[in-house]
């Protein structure tokens, strides 16, 4: 890992493995095919064209191999290729959240069970959570090919074996319903909800990203108008839903009441800070006993985790002692 620097990725969690600039020497050694995509930026530093989906996928493959020992990872064309440092940050903060109920210790065992809403073809959260903390996951999605690919990734990597139970959500309007089973418990849920409110908004956002990359000297070309897929790609259902992330999270909050006793912490990313007041108001209408907002930052990008629980502190500590202590 390279040494952190001001030009690296300020704001990452201290335990995030991706501090500082990408170490392209080590990355290309881990995945030699990446070498053909490495170029020099105007400052003479190695980088890749972040508007090139092939280059981004190879970078992800190298990061997974170098930092996590995950050597067999791929996604079908067009599916979301997530930025790994930010996804790792979510999990590091989630570990801290759980540690608050466990005498300040991060629980690292298969006794900890998480539910990933929208696991996707990339299975990024279960992969990193399994590699970093040894957790087990259920992964829910409405897309059959995505679930098939996620299961394939775990089957092809011995270090991930047994870490993911893929579950098809047959009702696109449901989130936890039909996924959380009777008598089942989860220590947390996590989610990267669809960000945009419409396909047109997703396309405009992709064009802005392309233009920003061009201004930064990371891509010399021009966007193809009307094409929503860019460097990190993503199918329509991964990128947008009616009402965007605010509407999606409101549905999540409403459904969480039904499963209040079966989950310790419900969490989700919130990309737009202006959505927080309305989401907090929605939570005040529930019996949630604690709500937290955990700020995150990667370079110039900021986001946050919204977390809520229906268990008071004493109940959370009792939960942790009962479910985690025996297997730590």
UniProtKB/TrEMBL annotation:
Pfam family, any one: Methyltransf_10
Domain of life assignment: Bacteria
GO biological process, one term: rRNA base methylation
E.C. number(s) listed in UniProt: 2.1.1.181
Catalysed reaction, written as an equation: adenosine(1618) in 23S rRNA + S-adenosyl-L-methionine = N(6)-methyladenosine(1618) in 23S rRNA + S-adenosyl-L-homocysteine + H(+)
Subcellular location per the Swiss-Prot or TrEMBL entry: Cytoplasm
InterPro entries: METTL16/RlmF, rRNA_lsu_MeTfrase_F, SAM-dependent_MTases_sf
A GO cellular component entry from the record: cytoplasm
Protein keywords: Cytoplasm, Methyltransferase, rRNA processing, S-adenosyl-L-methionine, Transferase
Molecular function GO labels: 23S rRNA (adenine(1618)-N(6))-methyltransferase activity
Family matches, as PANTHER family: RNA N6-ADENOSINE-METHYLTRANSFERASE METTL16 (PTHR13393:SF0), SAM-DEPENDENT METHYLTRANSFERASE (PTHR13393)
Function of the molecule: Specifically methylates the adenine in position 1618 of 23S rRNA.
Family: Belongs to the methyltransferase superfamily. METTL16/RlmF family.
Protein's recorded name: Ribosomal RNA large subunit methyltransferase F
Organism this protein belongs to: Chitinilyticum piscinae
């Amino acid at each position: 890992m390279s040494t952190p620097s001001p030009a690296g990725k300020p704001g990452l969690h201290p335990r995030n493995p991706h501090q500082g600039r990408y170490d392209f020497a080590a990355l290309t050694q881990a995945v030699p095919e990446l070498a053909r995509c490495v170029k020099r930026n105007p400052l003479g530093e190695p980088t890749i064209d972040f508007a090139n989906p092939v280059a981004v996928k190879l970078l992800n493959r190298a990061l997974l191999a170098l930092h996590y020992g995950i050597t067999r990872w791929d996604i079908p064309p067009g599916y979301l290729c997530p930025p790994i440092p930010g996804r790792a940050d979510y999990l590091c903060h989630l570990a801290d959240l759980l540690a608050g109920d466990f005498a300040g210790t991060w629980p690292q065992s298969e006794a900890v069970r998480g539910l990933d809403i929208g696991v996707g073809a990339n299975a990024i959260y279960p992969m990193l959570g399994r590699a970093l903390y040894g957790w087990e996951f259920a992964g829910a999605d409405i897309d059959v090919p995505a679930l098939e690919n996620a299961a394939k990734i775990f089957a092809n990597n011995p270090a991930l074996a047994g870490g993911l139970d893929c579950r098809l959500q047959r009702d696109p309007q449901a989130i936890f319903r039909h996924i959380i089973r009777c008598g089942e418990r989860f220590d947390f849920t996590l989610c990267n909800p669809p960000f945009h409110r419409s396909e047109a908004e997703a396309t405009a956002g992709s064009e802005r990203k392309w233009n920003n990359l061009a201004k930064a000297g990371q891509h010399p070309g021009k966007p193809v108008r009307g094409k929503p897929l860019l460097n990190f790609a993503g199918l329509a259902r991964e990128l947008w839903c009616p009402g965007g992330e605010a509407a999606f999270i409101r549905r999540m909050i409403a459904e969480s009441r039904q499963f209040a006793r079966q989950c310790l912490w419900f969490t989700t990313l919130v990309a737009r800070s202006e959505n927080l007041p309305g989401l907090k108001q929605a939570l005040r209408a529930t019996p949630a006993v604690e709500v937290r907002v955990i700020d995150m930052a990667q370079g110039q990008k900021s986001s946050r985790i919204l977390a809520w629980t229906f268990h008071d502190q004493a109940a959370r500590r009792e939960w942790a002692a009962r479910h985690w202590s025996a297997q730590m």
